[in-house]
Design goal:
This protein is α+β, with helices and mostly antiparallel strands and 334 residues long. It has a single domain, classed as Replication Fork Single-Stranded Dna Binding Protein (Replication Fork Single-Stranded DNA Binding Protein), CATH 3.90.198. It contains 9 helices and 9 strands. The strands form 2 sheets. Strands 1, 2, 3, 4, 5, 6 and 9 form a 7-stranded antiparallel sheet that branches. It has a two-stranded antiparallel ribbon with strand order 7-8.
């Protein structure tokens, strides 16, 4: 089996010449760590709209790529580590991702498919809302009770299911006639399982305290909390890190620490290190205790945005809920 990037590229080039057949945080956190609720317990959430009126949905997608390294260069006691970097496709389907461009052909070779999945993008979804029932007694909520939630694909599919129900008349985020969502944590095959999570059967309105919090603090513009889009220099760093990761090298803090680093990693600045970038991105300190689900493994073609999206965004805030629901249903069928 190929073990270095050079070997993988050589294998792919050879095949082209052949005929082709058919950790949890203890401080206050705006992000509510759903993954930290105990097995056999549940938490009740009330989702809220995005502050961005141009966003048809009440969530935004996050696409990250996990780069595994054998350890930390210069640290003989270091363990294998992961650096998460933003996938360029998160910023638009017309924005090519250098890693996915490299990895996509690997899925044509059965010997490379497993390694291809290792470097494929992992999708999650960013929501906001209130925690109405909290089983975690050690959770330190911030003064602003509007929390953000990182939702896994498994939970997201259940969230989305209500929107596809033709009997649903109001948006789940409606202040007066919305629905709560209960996240239930179980276990299956040694991993966390949320498949029994569900929407409430009855509608409910926000409490006076919740309405006051929205008026006082306002809603989050969710896209502001996506990783910063890498610039040209950072894209070169990403490519370099990817090649080193595939080749089994250790993470080099002197070369890459100014740009991307493992979660929680700190190191003394090096005299030979390049000037620090204005902004850096690292993964959240708390990681979901569940399986990592692959995004749409290639060659599925995403549907183009529908013209109706622009017209819905241009309508006033009094736009009827059924129109928005129809828009969401059309967009989520792909």
């Amino acid at each position: 089996m190929a073990t270095t990037l050079a070997e993988i590229r050589a294998r792919l080039q050879a095949s082209d010449n052949k005929p082709q057949g058919g950790n949890s945080s203890t401080g206050e956190s705006v992000i509510y760590p759903l993954w930290n609720i105990a097995e056999g317990t549940s938490t009740k959430i009330r989702f809220l709209p995005d502050a961005d009126n141009n966003n048809t949905f009440f969530w935004v997608e996050r696409s990250l790529i996990r780069l595994p390294f054998s350890g930390i260069k210069g640290d003989a006691n270091s363990r294998p580590t992961i650096v998460q970097i933003p996938c360029m496709e998160m910023y638009g389907r017309d924005t090519p991702c250098p890693i996915l461009s490299e990895v996509r052909p690997w899925f044509k070779d059965p010997n490379l498919e497993v390694k291809g999945r290792q470097y494929w993008k992992k999708k999650s979804y960013l929501f906001q809302g209130f925690v109405r029932e909290n089983p975690m007694t050690d959770d330190r909520a911030p003064a602003n009770p509007i929390r953000r939630f990182i939702i896994s694909p498994q939970i997201f599919n259940l969230v989305k299911s209500a929107l596809m129900d033709p009997d649903l008349e109001n948006l789940p985020t409606d202040y007066e006639s919305g629905l709560d969502f209960t996240v239930i944590k179980g276990a299956k095959g040694g991993f966390a399982d949320y498949s029994t999570s569900k929407w409430a059967r009855k509608e409910s309105s926000l409490t006076a305290a919740e309405t006051a919090a929205i008026n006082q603090y306002g809603l989050f513009n969710l896209v502001d909390f996506l990783p910063k889009k890498p610039n040209d220099v950072e894209l070169k760093v990403i490519k370099e890190m990817f090649e080193a990761s595939v080749d089994g090298e250790a993470y080099d803090a002197e070369r890459w620490g100014q740009y991307f680093k493992p979660s929680g990693f700190t190191a003394a600045p090096s005299a030979t290190a390049a000037p620090a970038a204005k902004t850096t991105f690292s993964a959240p300190a708390a990681k979901p205790a569940t399986t990592i689900e692959d995004d749409d493994i290639p060659f599925e073609v995403a549907a183009a945005p529908t013209p109706a999206a622009a017209s819905v965004a241009a309508k006033p805030s009094s736009q009827r809920a059924e129109d928005i629901l129809a828009m969401i249903r059309n967009r989520t069928k792909v």
